[in-house]
Amino acid sequence: MKAVQLKLAPATTAVVGKTQIAYLTDGRRMWDNTLLLAEVARLLEAEGKGGAAVQVDNTAAFDRVRWDFLQEAMEAMGYPEEFREFIKEIYTDLQFTIRVNGQSGGRKGASNGVRQGCPASPLIFLIVQEALLMAIRGDKELRGVKVVTGGEEGGRAEVRERCMADDTVVYLESAAQARRLFEIIGEFEDASGQKLNPSKSTGVLFGEEKLRAAPEGTGIRWIKFGEEEMDEGLGIRVGTEEQVRRQWEEALREVVGEMRIIYSQTC
User: Fold this and answer.
1) Which of 56, 151, 181, 203 could form a disulfide with 222 if both were Cys (CB 3.0 to 4.6 A apart)?
2) In three state form, how does the secondary structure of 128-144 look?
3) Rounded CA gap, 144 and 124, in Å?
4) Residue 213 gets which letter from DSSP?
5) How far is CA 63 from CA 1, 110, 117, 141, 244, in A?
6) What pLDDT digit, counting tens, does each position of 134-159 carry?
7) What's the angle, vertex CA 33, arms to CA 38 and CA 5, rounded to 5?
């Protein structure tokens, strides 16, 4: 499957949108999404501004991939029929056994999922996840947040969805649009077999949106930026200057503590 990965990588890079940064080969950097979230937070916290960000995480993302949906997605994205048939052959009539304390049970059949540890599986999963990103990107009711793009004219562009594998951040002009976002996510879940993980998904209110009531019926936790801690992304927790300062102080204390333990053991 390593050979499949090497051939699949440039094709998947070509068809997956620029808002997905995981596993691709054209120089996309995984920390860009974290930096963007920090800058958007700073922008929306300015006087007279406001908006929301929804951090969405999937439950057992690789294990829940529906094979029929994968085939439909590959066909829609233009993958050749020969390749689709090859992938179909790989993910047909799979069986597995479970070993506990050295004892193996009987064979069981698998009906969905892509193999953990297979070199091609991350790229195959991106094809499935791109269906969600395309739906969010193309929806006429959703509106992202406007950011300054730089340059002499000081242009502005809309930021809407960003993704690292299945970890998705959706920026919304107002938290009221979350209802429409979760309608899209629900349709994706029904079609693809994916499932939102509410315990690892969070909505964040910025600026003037913090003065309004959090949306109801989304099934996720909502926090107010600067008043509560955001979830970590890639080991980094975006926050206010004071929150970031406290993070560095805590990290420094941990490093100093570890150094003292090492020193005491070697002296």
Assistant:
1) 203
2) HHHHHHHHHHHCCCCCC
3) 28
4) P
5) 18, 10, 12, 31, 35
6) 999 999 999 999 887 665 556 778 89
7) 165
